[in-house]
Amino acid sequence: MIVSTSAAGLRCVLDAKASLGECPTWSVAEQVLYWVDINAPSLNRFDPATGENIVMPMPESIGCCALRRSGGFTAHAYDPATGTPLNARIFARFTDPGDRPDGAAVDSEGCYWTAQYRGGKLKRMAADGRLLSEFPLPAMCPTMCAFGGPDLRTLYVTSARQQRDAEELARLPLSGGIFSMRVRVPGLPEPSFAG
Description:
Blueprint lengths: L2 E2 L6 E4 L6 E7 L4 E6 L4 E6 L4 E6 L8 E2 L5 E2 L26 E6 L5 E5 L4 E5 L5 E6 L5 E7 L5 E6 L6 H6 L6 E5 L13
Parallel strand pairs: 1-12
Antiparallel strand pairs: 2-15, 3-4, 4-5, 5-6, 7-8, 9-10, 10-11, 11-12, 13-14, 14-15
C-alpha cells in the first residue's frame, strides 16, 4: 500500500541554497550531518542542535565523502583486485517520467529510501523493489537521504537548485536546502571505512 504524506512532513532545517547538495552522512560520534555541495565546491558540517553549518571549501568538485574509523573522510564498496563494484543486480525499474533515482539510504527493516531527482519526492521501497510510500518535498530536485539523530529516526535530505528556472525557484524557494523529517523505522549507522 502506498502512503503519501504532505510536504509539511519534510521541513527545511538549513536553507543552504546549495547548487548541488549531495552525500548527507551522519556522524554518530559527533551527532552532526556532513554533506557536500559539488559545485561550490565544499564539504559541510551541519549541527542540527545549534543550526550551525561550517563550510570547508575544496580545491575541486567533491562528489561524496565517507567517514573513516581512524578519522577523516574517504569511498565506496568495490572489489580491490579489479576496482569494479560488487554484487550488481536490478533492484527496481522506474518508468514514471518524474522518476529519476538519485542517492539513497537503507533503514533497519531493509527498506530502500531513494531521492527522486526532478521528481520532488522520496520513495521508500521494500527489499524486493515494491513501492511502499512516497514523500513529497518542497524542492524539485532532492539528491540523497541519510538517517541521523540520536535514535537514527531523523531522515535528512539534500537537494539542488542548479539549472532550475526562475519560475520554479520562485515557487520552490527552499530548493538547495537540507530537509528532515521524523520516521517510524530507524536507519542503520553509516559504516566507517577502514582505510
